[in-house]
Amino acid sequence: MLTLCGFPVSNYYNKVKLALLEKNVPFVEENVKTGLTDEAVLSASPLAKIPFIRTPQGNLCESEAILEYIEAAYPNPPLLPPDPFAAAKVRELCIYIDLHLELVARDLYYQAFFGGTVSEGTQARVRKQLDKSIPAVKRLLKFGPYAAGDTFTLADCAAFASLPVVGMATKAIYGEDLLLAAGVDYKAYMKFIGERPSAQRIMADRKAATVKP
Asked: Is the pTM here over 0.90, yes or no?
């Protein structure tokens, strides 16, 4: 059985978790914080990033690598199209969401979500990058009705996990949700995906993890 390591507030953790749930893969969860320095974590995730998984064959980190493993090891139901080009387009969209959108906006999270302060210079730099990245991602997003077209794919795992986080962060820092302002109507998409039992499980677990005792 697989063990998913991380915590349910992390969007990348939920990206992997959504794929596992959609595929009905048996797994257990292990709460692991990011940045730990003990050998048990570093041997699985050398940069102490989450998520990572423990498999019968060994450990694996980086969400995209994990999704590729899950898709290969548990091919049914498929979360990639059978056509090689169509599958590559799904992967392309995942990369754009992760690398060109979420990773850029991540520099805002310290102030947007954790009570810290992000310098005006950083805010300006991120805004400049997002002004390029958001229209680029918009070109690839289909919302037809799923992120990459008419079928639920790995791109939906990335989009469901990260689009609302980016939207909330930009709203907190710039006073407007830059995704919505650019015409990326992810709210309707999130409502649509949120009707799936897997997504409802993700949201319930995330809410439970954020409730203070």
From this structure: yes
**Class for the domain spanning 84-210:** mainly alpha
Return per-residue pLDDT of the chain as tens, 213 residues: 999 999 999 999 999 999 999 999 999 999 998 888 889 899 999 999 999 999 999 999 999 999 999 999 999 999 999 999 999 999 999 999 999 999 999 999 999 999 999 999 999 999 999 999 999 999 999 999 999 999 999 999 999 999 999 999 999 999 999 999 999 999 999 999 999 999 999 999 999 998 765
Class of the CATH domain delimited by 2-73? alpha beta
Cα distances (angstroms) measured from residue 161 to each of 81, 83, 107, 128, 164: 20, 25, 17, 23, 7
| DSSP-derived pairing of the beta strands 52-55 and 58-61 | antiparallel
Domain positions in the chain are 2-73, 84-210
